[in-house]
Amino acid sequence: MRTKQFKSESKKLMDMMINSIYTHKEIFLREIISNSSDAIDKLYFLSLTDSSVGIKADDFKIQIELDKENRTIKVSDNGIGMTEEELDKNLGTIAKSGSFDFKSENDKKDGVDIIGQFGVGFYSAFMVSDKVTVETKAFGSNEAFCWESSGAEGYTVSTCDKESVGTTVTMHIKEDTEDEKYSEYLDQYKISSLIKKYSDYIRHPIVMDFETKKAVEGKENEYEDVIENRTLNSMIPLWKRSKSELKDEDYNNFYKEKFMDYENPIKVIHTATEGTATYNALMFIPKHAPFDYYTKEFEKGLQLYSKGVLIMDKCAELLPDYFSFVKGLVDSEDLSLNISREMLQHDGQLKLIAKTLEKKIKNELEKMLKNEREAYEEFFKAFGVQLKFGVYNSYGMNADTLKDLLIFKSSKENKYVTLKEYVSGMKEGQDTVYYACGETTERIELLPQCDAVKDKGFEILYLTENVDEFSLMMLREYDGKKFMNVCDENLNLDTEDEKKALESENESAKDMFEEMKKALGESVNAIRFTNKLKNHPVCLTSEGGISLEMEKTLNAMPGSDENKVKAQLVLEINSTHPIAQKIKEIYGKDNETLAKYAKLLFAEASLIGGKTIDNPVEHSNLVCELMTK
Ligand code: ADP
Question: Domain 2-231: what homologous superfamily?
Fold first, then answer.
């Protein structure tokens, strides 16, 4: 016999289970039964291609045995079983360590919540048991092993006798306490109601010997004790039941258990289709992004069933990347059970299903946007980035599909608006959708360039995410209206007269700006006067399509070190600000000071635009030099 310690995280979880004051301890049974069902699925799936399995489909079952005297519940299955290594790996370490970590960060104050909201699997048995024994024989193995643990200290593994392939979990139920009547879990009615409640859809029979009374034939009012072997679950998967008989709670419980979330989904999509593609689909839009969603470990996909049997856990082909947040499953009669991953990729039927599912998801999101704005905004905060990437990726191939699902904060009421809403709220004669970029909406509002646009009564979209501007560039226009960054050099809000006056002013200051440009070298493309700054002295704009924000984003990408992108910057100076007068005065008299002013003005404009200054030391020296003059 080997005695082993639990891996540290498992130990934490075990401790929590053993000392749990959680009120829904009853979920332990569901967890143990789900494991059995999964193990049977695996062996059943194998039996389709491997004749040595030797079990008929109808013979698979999960057996429950209650023993009041010895205080045990036994759950046995004839599934795939576990080898010695698998026992160690599966029951000695917590598989979902990452998610557990994540949850514990959020729920440190309230460990209880983790258990209820989040499937904790096998270890939940310890909420009601003081000892758990697992006897198991893996398919293809001659040896059986017994795993046993009485708590967080550790577990033992030894060889044992077991005839048939499969697993038996024996839970030794805790003694009753003042607060907890553990004995109720030894009651056959309680157990059968728990199975109805949580495991009804399990597609293998869950059977139990049921002690009951039966009328004695021919004798009135006389009953005898009999034992009936009953099947306790209906075995109809949730997704095959009609919508009308299902309650929100059914969907929510199913979702939380199956997809290991601690929150209800924000949307449930349950559909059945017959015709060119026959399938049932049950999809969920989660309320929040899974902890690994924005990492490369995340795998998108829906579970794929063929006639109720799981054939693939994450079928990526069923979901486009921009809807990768959707969880759920598809059950189709049209797919063969032992279809391989490679074959699936070329399966026309599957493509058809994927297309219709995509439409369903899109419709659902559109409906939510229209009728449940608040929920949609919550959804968008979690997954909007994904939609925006969807617009941008594949050279904008899906931009049309997705453009009406985008929302952005806007200057009007600092509320989210769709592009359609923006356009329908446009002023007469407005032909441009204005936007501004920055880290936060607060910072954007401070941009001097926004003032002029707002003054003209135009609404501005506030783009705070790196991908935002790229996705608008990909769209190019909406409803014939082009997009323009308020920091774009071409932002043209002046009247013809104003334009002319400015042109001539710039023309006469040409040589002065040349002189100033010498001081700034490559940093700027041009310097000129502008009308668009109300009270502010300076701002930076860009010409040639790459904005300051885009420069930042592109240069922050991995591998961009050798190939830095540069926005073509223009330093614009407010022609009505006293500083304009000042530089005109010193030009030609004191060009050395003019050069210093040029540097200072460029530094100011950079800071306002959210750009770092290349030489902060020089900048600070210049400022102090002026202060002490
Ligand atoms: P989860 O089921 O979420 O993976 P659990 O803690 O419930 O997590 O179980 C851990 C692993 O132990 C399972 O993934 C499975 O590989 C194995 N396991 C548990 N119960 C059984 C069983 N009855 N038969 C075969 N394997 C099992």
Answer: Histidine kinase-like ATPase, C-terminal domain (3.30.565.10)
